[in-house]
């Protein structure tokens, strides 16, 4: 198949290379079509093997109790791999575990890889399934040691021999070389061709078997970013899980990074992908409203969710992702600036507050400080968290143009809300007539705050929407 390769299989305590460990290694080295070495060993993982894994592989805790640790066999494995290509069925799994194990020994494993799942897809494209059990059934192969490392290695060796007899050695060799020259980091079950994904700005979606996306991301170079997910799968548990589940990739090109940021935020909030932790829909947003009356009790009230009106941002301070966060930060401000917890509504009671008794309140609660002066100090303490009033008269458009692709997106904002990304007058009119349906969004507010204040980012410009030129920026 290849001039020199090592066909390898691992058994492990689980599927996560970051947390799980190797329990068995088997490897056969082939040089110029001749078997030159065969080696296998149980490995003491240093962690307990679960009942499920023991039932699957037949490897028990008692069997590995006296087995060598990985560091004891690492040198022998490295010697076996020297000058050879690492070949395995779903090589990402085995390669990922080896990377982790060698990293724990402060050793970098540098080896090229070929996946026989992907090789099976190339050699037998008429078949849907290419797992080891499917291959055994399809080609009439058998083993008495399924889910044991050497038993599985032997099955793959037998399949490679059979494929060479059926299709010819030159065909198998050519397809293996093509995989070697391509990206061995790709998940073997991935149906989307990487070359089809543009290396331009946009948003990409990862899908598994279901209709809902696993993950949504954005990049100014989508193809490169998608590849980086797969390359990180051997180091990061989340990326490994995505790589194991992914089946296809969808993408949406944009004019630039701002377009991608806005689209990503909207799609994550609407589709709620399981592996996205940021940009999710905020259900508990809140901010403090400072009463204009110094005599008001309490001086601050919490404004939540749909009541966050951007037209009132001149008197709102925050925004906080939860009531608890808002209260914690207010308590910190009160302690730092010697503000009265009674007047702020942090504590109930009459007369001097407990903080005043400790010398941590200047006495607004007991007449030692005027309400006006206390309110002014509250306002000054909150000033760094004051929400910014919308600086424009009505809606504005942020034009983003990509000179390389020729694409232009116009992002319509009003009162810090993103109404839509439009490309013609009809879309603009629709966006302006539906503005009342939009609610405040913290991520959009922060993005707009950054990009709707001069100087504009490269490739962008601010437009008065009454006189939009729909041509090139």
Keywords:
4 domains, elongated, single chain, 473 residues, 4-stranded antiparallel beta sheet, Nucleotidyltransferase, domain 5, GIY-YIG endonuclease, 5-stranded mixed beta sheet, 17 helices, alpha+beta
Strand tally is 15
Ends apart, CA distance between termini: 54 Å
Q: What composes the largest sheet?
A: 5 strands, mixed
The stretches of 5 or more residues where confidence is low (pLDDT under 50) are 467-473
The helix-and-strand class reads alpha+beta
For CATH, the homologous superfamily of the largest domain is named as Ribonuclease H-like superfamily/Ribonuclease H
Assembly form of the protein: single chain
Cα-based radius of gyration, to the nearest Å: 31 Å
Strand content: 15-25%
Number of domains: 4
The strand line-up of the biggest sheet is 3-2-1-4-5
Rounded mean pLDDT is 88
Structure report:
A five-stranded mixed beta sheet has the order 3-2-1-4-5, sandwiched between helices. Helix 11 runs antiparallel to helix 17 (442-451). The chain is an alpha+beta fold and 473 residues long. The protein folds into four domains: 4-181, 2-Layer Sandwich (Nucleotidyltransferase, domain 5); 194-271, GIY-YIG endonuclease; 286-385, no CATH class; 396-467, no CATH class. The protein has 17 helices and 15 strands. A hairpin with a 2-residue loop joins strand 13 and strand 14 (417-422). The longest helix is centred in the middle third of the chain and has 19 residues, at 149-167. 38% of the residues are buried.
């Amino acid at each position: 198949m290849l001039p020199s390769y090592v066909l390898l299989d691992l058994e492990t305590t689980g599927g996560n290379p970051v947390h799980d460990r190797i329990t068995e290694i088997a490897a056969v080295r082939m040089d110029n079509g001749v078997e030159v070495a065969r080696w296998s060993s149980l490995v003491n993982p240093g962690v307990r093997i679960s009942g499920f894994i023991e039932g699957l592989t037949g490897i028990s805790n008692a069997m590995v109790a006296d087995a060598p640790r990985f560091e004891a066999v690492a040198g022998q494995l490295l010697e076996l791999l020297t000058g050879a290509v690492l070949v395995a069925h779903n090589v990402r799994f085995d390669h990922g575990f080896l990377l982790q194990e060698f990293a724990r020994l402060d050793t970098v494993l540098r080896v090229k890889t070929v996946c026989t799942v992907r090789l099976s897809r190339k050699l037998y494209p008429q078949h849907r399934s290419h797992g080891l059990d499917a291959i055994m059934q399809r080609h009439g192969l058998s083993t008495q040691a399924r889910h044991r490392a050497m038993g599985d290695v032997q099955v793959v060796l037998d399949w490679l021999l059979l494929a060479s007899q059926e299709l010819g050695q030159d065909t198998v060799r050519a397809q293996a070389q093509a995989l070697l020259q391509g990206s061995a980091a790709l998940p073997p079950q991935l149906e989307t061709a990487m070359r089809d994904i543009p290396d331009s700005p946009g948003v990409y979606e990862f899908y598994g078997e279901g209709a809902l996306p696993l993950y949504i991301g954005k990049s100014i170079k989508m193809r490169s970013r998608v590849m980086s997910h797969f390359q990180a799968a051997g180091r990061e548990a989340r990326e490994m899980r995505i790589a194991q589940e992914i089946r296809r990739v969808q993408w949406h090109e944009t004019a630039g990074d701002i377009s991608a940021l806005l689209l990503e935020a909207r799609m994550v909030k609407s589709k709620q992908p399981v592996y996205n932790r940021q940009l999710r829909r905020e259900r508990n947003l809140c901010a403090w409203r400072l009463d204009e009356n110094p005599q008001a009790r309490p001086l601050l009230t919490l404004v939540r969710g749909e009541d966050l009106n951007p037209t009132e941002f001149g008197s709102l301070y925050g925004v906080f992702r939860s009531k608890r966060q808002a209260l914690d930060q207010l308590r910190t401000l009160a302690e730092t600036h010697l503000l009265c917890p009674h007047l702020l509504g942090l504590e109930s009671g009459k007369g001097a507050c407990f903080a005043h008794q400790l010398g941590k309140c200047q006495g607004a609660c007991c007449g030692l400080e005027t309400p006006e002066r206390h309110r002014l100090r509250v306002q000054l303490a909150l000033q760094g968290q004051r929400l910014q009033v919308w600086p424009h008269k009505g809606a504005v458009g942020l034009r983003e143009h990509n000179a390389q692709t020729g694409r232009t997106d116009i992002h319509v904002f009003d009162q810090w809300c993103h109404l839509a990304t439009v490309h013609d007058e009809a879309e603009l009119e629709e966006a302006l007539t539906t503005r009342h349906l939009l609610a405040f969004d913290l991520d959009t507010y922060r993005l707009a705050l950054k990009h709707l204040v001069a100087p504009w980012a490269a490739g962008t410009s601010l437009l008065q929407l009454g006189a939009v030129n729909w041509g090139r920026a």
